[in-house]
Amino acid sequence: MTAVGIDLDARAYELDRAHVFHSWSAQAALNPLVLAGGRGCRVWDHAGREYLDFASQMVNVNIGHQHPVVTAAIADQAARLTTIGPAVANLQRGEAAQRITALAPEGFDKVFFTNGGADANENAIRMARLHTGRDKVLSTYRSYHGNTGAAVVATGDWRRMPNEYARGHVHFFGPYLYRSEFWSSSAEEESERALRHLERVVQCEGPDTIAAILLESVPGTAGILVPPPGYLAGVRAIADRYGIVLILDEVMCGFGRTGRWFAFDGYDVIPDLITFAKGVNSGYVPVGGVVISEPIARTFDERVFPGGLTYSGHPLAAASIVAALDVMADEGIVANAERIGRTVIGPALSRVAEDVPLIGEVRGEGVFWAIELVADRETRQPLSAAAMARIKADLVARGVLPFLADNRIHFAPPCVVTEAEVHEAAAALREVLTALPEEIR
Ligand SMILES: Cc1ncc(COP(=O)(O)O)c(C=O)c1O
């Protein structure tokens, strides 16, 4: 560790605490980690303290930190044309839209670019409302869709309640066998009962009033809730029965996270609108968007779409999308996520769960895994907030950055993670959970 590095860490921390207002937090008690550099799955501070990034920051750095091809593409575009308005045609913007539509199902030929995931959902909702002439949007209680007007009210978790100023939002329960709302005892039962519940909600709300059903293909922050067999196809069938637009939110689960390009590719379903952000360019430049199926795109051939953004299709973001998607294809990064999830992460976490009674369930796919922590395996009582805070601090002290949500640790490393890195993180997890003092569970 260098003296200069230690000084820079101290200055970064002081400036942050003095001037930076942080998301979703009471500000007084914050104690942010200083990070200054990274490469692949590792990040470090100025003094050279290293961490394994098993959160991929906000579950977005799918190709790992500082991929040289992508940083070079951004630098190259910055040297050529740093910014340009949304109304002009720009080569990188067109190439980015082409790359994305090439990965989407047939008939998805248009992309509306936004600045991130929330405004992708915001605009998808607007498209669905204008396309159907209906108003309501149905989404699940266990969901996060972003921090803007309609997206935050479509969100199911606690972040919705202080922000409920948008209208027309109705919530329902999706499948979650470990904590079933439907008294189910099998994945098949959970799927069938959750579908029946959704159809009853549609009927009781009035099908002619419902514009869209908005779902994360695999709910992420809400618990990495891999959908049971038949669920997403069943939602598609309900949407079709009542003329409702199906929006699948792929912001967190898309672009390799599940070991597939789109998470829904594994579930026998094709939506009407796909929203994306995060993994599309691994967050190297802020960007998101909506991939639009042909019937909805046609609605706006002769009719104005009343929406837009100064930075829609920003050239730095577009160049980073092109480079990131090309790198992912050329280097087999999505295939690595699939293989390592199936053959290394799943088995490694299951072995920890066999020995550590605090783990109630391990679930996931690709590089998208939840470890559900419980005070008691029988009652499934969630582990306390104090215990979770202690676990987080202990993991960070052992050099592993986890993503924590409620009583869960989400293991979501970059898609380029290696077998050795998984074993390193799993060993730290085992140590931390085994050493957790009895009195704070
Ligand atoms: C599923 C999902 N949708 C939307 C968003 C919002 O994306 P952003 O923070 O880029 O606005 C997130 C962010 O975590 C997300 O996980």
TrEMBL record:
Keywords: Pyridoxal phosphate. InterPro entries: Aminotrans_3, Aminotrans_3_PPA_site, PyrdxlP-dep_Trfase, PyrdxlP-dep_Trfase_major, PyrdxlP-dep_Trfase_small. This is Taurine--2-oxoglutarate transaminase. GO terms for cellular component: cytosol. One of its GO terms (molecular function) is transaminase activity. Belongs to the class-III pyridoxal-phosphate-dependent aminotransferase family.
